[in-house]
Amino acid sequence: HYGPPNAPAAWGVHTDFVPDEVLLQNLVQGGVGLHYNCPEGCPEVVAAFAELARQYAKIIVSPYEGMDHKIALTAWTFIDEMDEMDLGRVEIFVRAHHNSERAPEYFKP
After folding, report:
1. 56-80 pLDDT per residue, tens
2. 43-55 vs 87-97: helix axis angle to the nearest 10?
3. Which pLDDT does position 3 carry in this prediction?
4. pLDDT tens for each residue of 16-70
5. What is the C-alpha to C-alpha distance for residues 94 and 31, in angstroms, rounded to an integer?
6. Alpha-carbon distance values, 54 to 22, 66, 68, 102 (Å)
7. Do the bridges between strand 12-13 and strand 71-75 make them parallel or antiparallel, or are there none, so unpaired?
């Protein structure tokens, strides 16, 4: 994976795909990825993810084409996938993994 200066990606909401080689560094630093695959658009998912990104320092939201499911939640060594938004499940995942000490470089901003 990439490191500085090419990674990690800026925390927050991205409207364009962020390559795996960059996203991995975000996860290494204790970040949580909230990704969606919505060819016809899914503004409700993006809005919910954006709200979480405002509440937590290390969240990255981005589209991700070609996933088997509509939604994927990622953290260091963890993934959860779903086809319908379950905000409670998303929030549990974020709380469990955001800046987790299981991530090798969780101490980095």
Report:
1. 999 999 999 999 999 999 999 999 9
2. 30
3. 75
4. 999 999 999 999 999 999 999 999 999 999 999 999 999 999 999 999 999 999 9
5. 9
6. 21, 27, 27, 23
7. unpaired
CA distance 26 to 32: 8
Burial of 84 (0-12, 13-18, 19+ CB in 10 A): exposed
Residue 92 is which amino acid?
I
pTM beyond 0.70: the answer is yes
Residues whose CB is less than 8 angstroms from the CB of residue 11 and which lie 6 or more positions away in sequence, other chains included: 26, 31, 53, 57, 58, 59, 60
User: Given the structure tokens 């998912």, which residue do they identify?
Assistant: 45
